[in-house]
Amino acid sequence: MDGEAAPVRINAGQVAGGHFRYYDYVMAAFVAILLLSNVLGAGKVAQVWLPFWETWWPFGAGILFFPLSYVLGDVLTEVYGYARARRVIWAGFVATLFMAFMAWVVVALPPAPDWTNQAAYETIFGQVPRIVFASVIAFWAGEFVNSFVLAKMKLWTRGRHLWSRTIGSTFAGQGVDSLIFYPLAFWGAEGWTNDLVLKVLVTQWVLKVSWEVLLTPVTYAVVGFLKRREGVDVYDEDTDFTPFRTRV
Questions:
Q1: Which of 4-13, 177-186, 228-237 has the lowest mean pLDDT?
Q2: Mind listing the pLDDT tens digit for each residue in 196-219?
Q3: Cα separation of 207 and 175, whole Å?
């Protein structure tokens, strides 16, 4: 699909197998942000000063950038339709599994005698299998819920009120993500009380949705640009919403 004219409303089935100018770039950005958020952000607990309460509040550093993957997920579904978003979700899922496998292999390799950074390397890249499993499952389920809700809401709203779709789908998708990840990863774990798991779960959910709200102008700009350049506005009127396929 190519062009600069105003986007034309079209059913997703009419562009099955077609080529889009910017789709591959959005896919690459989605997978890159997903992997980098897990590598660079997941292992650090940062803190922010809350002046109203006059206290420091801890948070996982990955939350600064991981929500961008949900923004791009919204963009993919809104611009290209559920089927192409589904393919990108699977690409991210497989990439995350490979990243976890690669980290496990590299950390497990015996270090050379004169290389003294093994302990630090294990601290940064060593992964707890339970947390990896929870993260991958939560990502997969949350992203598909996000994409499904947005595609359905686009039909219900007849393409109006984009903000309601992006925020509503993120509320649902991030809710599923958090409800799966934190209990699977930390319920009953050493140092984690049940109350703490619930507190972090709700806090992260609220922060992620808040990020989506703050980034709404950016989402509007990106969606508008891509629709104009691609020349179409895709609606999932006859789409098969099963997550278990990758064909577009």
A1: 4-13
A2: 889 888 888 988 899 889 999 999
A3: 11
First to last CA, the chain: 14
Q: What secondary structure does DSSP assign to 137-195, as a single string?
A: HHHHHHHHHHHHHHHHHHHHTTT--HHHHHHHHHHHHHHHHHHHHHHHHHTT-TT--HH
Q: What is the dihedral of CA 88, 81, 223, 209, to 10 degrees?
A: -70
Residue positions counted in the chain: 248
Q: Give the angle subtended at the CA of 26 by the CAs of 19 and 60, to the nearest 5°.
A: 155
96: closest CA among 62, 137, 68, 67?
A: 137
CA dist., res. 39 & res. 41, Å (int): 6
In DSSP terms, which residues pair with 234 in a beta bridge? 10
**248, 84 in Cβ contact below 8 A?**
yes
Per-residue pLDDT tens digits for 65-117? 877 888 899 999 999 999 999 999 999 999 999 998 998 999 999 999 999 99
Closest CA to 238 of 23, 19, 77, 82: 82
For residues 86 and 246, is the Cβ–Cβ distance under 8 A?
yes
* Strand stretches in the chain, DSSP E: 8-11, 45-50, 55-60, 232-235
d(CA 97, CA 136): 7
pLDDT value at residue 44: 67
